[in-house]
Structures are given as structure tokens and as C-alpha cells.
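FAQ
Q: What does a multi-component entry look like?
A: The components come first, one per line:
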Amino acid sequence: MIEFWFEFASTYSYPAALRIEKCAAETGHEIVWRPFLLGPIFREQGWDNSPFNIYAAKGNYMWRDLERICQAESLPFRRPTIFPQNGLLAARVACTDGNGGWLPDFVRAVYSANFADDRDISLPATVATCLTGHVADPEVVMQAASGGGAKARLRANTERAVELGIFGAPSFIVDGELFWGNDRLETALAWKQGD
Amino acid sequence: MIEFWFEFASTYSYPAALRIEKCAAETGHEIVWRPFLLGPIFREQGWDNSPFNIYAAKGNYMWRDLERICQAESLPFRRPTIFPQNGLLAARVACTDGNGGWLPDFVRAVYSANFADDRDISLPATVATCLTGHVADPEVVMQAASGGGAKARLRANTERAVELGIFGAPSFIVDGELFWGNDRLETALAWKQGD
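Then the predicted structure of the entire assembly, as C-alpha cells:
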């Protein structure tokens, strides 16, 4: 099992989300999808924005690095007009009950909307489009996303992330070991307890 | 050619410094050693300490991650009692004139003193020991390190680092492309202009 902790605004979560199923299949890991929010974690650190916006040199590097990674992975990439985007609604959708079957498709669709198609993922219309074709009735799921259950699950995930020592996304947990960053996906999947 | 930008206090520069010669030999790259100081760059960002000390979750993760990396690379590792250490004197030694022949040996010795042997690298005695066996007379080099030439070269390197968009260590530059982090060494060495 590999826990995949992701936040829809997170740049490096994009290649991770699009790679993880193929990579996990090769090593025989089951993926546990863990949507959470980085905003509350960043605010605890005194940041009211992405560190990539606060620290310009780091941000400049990140955009170029992400472009290189996407090119190497043959993933389409367009730098989003808005960064970071507000992924709250999409994260609540990902936390609705009974998301088992369609969640991976939805997650990939939201990341592609954000980082390949430069669409505003905070809009209900964008999120509904990301559900289309994957669920019987997107409107029913959108309704569920505004319910207390989805909100509580997302809050609990974010609190759990802090307890686990998570401070950024994507993060992976295998056998209790924490790995941070798209570039640690392979290392996480190769991890064996006792290493 | 690969430019290797390093700071003696930097944790992830330790495995990079101990790996780079073997890795660069395999790809036929000549290494240009670029000692610089992160302190002034961090202060520009409003940090008076390492971000690994300021942000506890990130620091906890880094120490565990570094331990795993060193284990995988069969590098000895002991968490330093003092972090970050003051690498100013060692960096000035690395900036003395005529350092061509012995610099790689000295750099490896300083990193090993810091991260394998938990010695205080701010002390002249430690730095002199790191020169022993690699230069004819360590005292002559120590004298040169306190001269204006070495100080000016180190200041110029740090200013150049900022101009190049460097914000952390280790950083690598190949064909004008910047790569940040020990985990990007292989990517940097594989880089071809026009990629």
C-alpha cells in the first residue's frame, strides 16, 4: 500500500498524480488517495501564500523544473494564470462518500484542468466537468461535496497530515515512512520496512 | 562541464560532494567547484537561520531523508550536534588561489568532518586537519584564506549565485540550466542544450 497525499493547487502533485497509477501497478502497490489542504499548514508556518510566490528565486526555478519534468514525462503543461488555485471544492468532491471507483479519473482531470488546460478549478462548472463521464450524475456528487460529511473528511485528512509530519505535497507514506516530492515516488515504492 | 555550487553547512550538499566526482567521470563532465555562502541569501529571504530549523516538520523530514540517502549510498552519517555549522572559514580556504589540485579532497574532508564525524568545522584546527595530507603546508593555505583575495572571491561567488537564480545548495549548472538538490545531480549530468 502507498498513501498518496495530494493538494490540487500543488504543482509537483500534477506529475505525481498522473504517474502514480502506472508506477504503483509496476511494483504491485495499492494506492490510498489522501486529498488534503496545504493552506492551513502553510498558515501555521506564517505563509499566507505559496512559498513559490513568496520566494521569487525558488518560484522561478520551480516553474522551469516543472516544465522540464513534464517534458521528460510527455505530460502537457501550461503555466496556470492563477497560482496557487483554490482547490477547496475539488478536494471536497474527492472526499465525498463512495468515491472509490471514479476518484483516480477525477483527480487526473482536475490536475489536467489546472496545469495543462489553465482552467479555474475553483469554479463549480470546472469541477463538474471533471466529474463528467466518470460518475452517473455530476450534480449529485457536487451536492454531496457541500455536505458535512465531505467537509469533515477533508478537515480530518488535513489534521492527520499534520500529525504524520506532512508539510508539503505530494507526499507518500509506505510502511510508516514519509517521502516528500514527485521525485521521491520511485524511492517510496521501493521502500521496505527495515531498510 | 558541470558547475557545482555548494555551501559547507548544507546537508544535502554532503552526499552531492561525495558522489559528484564518480558521477561526472561516468558522463565525462569536468567539475567546476563553486563554493558560496547561503547565509546572505537566506537573510535576503528574511531567515536568520536554516529553514530546516525554522520549519520543524520540514527539518524532521530532512534529517530522516538524509539518513536514508546516506544509507543507500553507503555514506557514513551522524547528525551534527551544531546545525547549521559556520562554514565561512572553510569556504574561504576553498576560495584561495591555486586550489586546483587539492580542492576536491579538501571539500570531501570538510563535509565528512561536518556530517560523518560531527566535528566543529568553524574551528581553524578542524579546517587545517582537512587540508593535511592534501597540501604541502596547511598553515600557508590557512594564511591565504584570511587574505583579501580569498574573501573577495567568496563574496563574488555568492553574488554570482544570486544572479544565477540560486537559492539553495547543492545547485548545479550545465549548459546554462540550473538544477537544485542532490537528487537532481543525475538529471543535470544528463542535460543537453535544446532538451
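Q: Is there any commentary attached?
A: Sometimes. For this entry: The mean pLDDT of chain A is 96.
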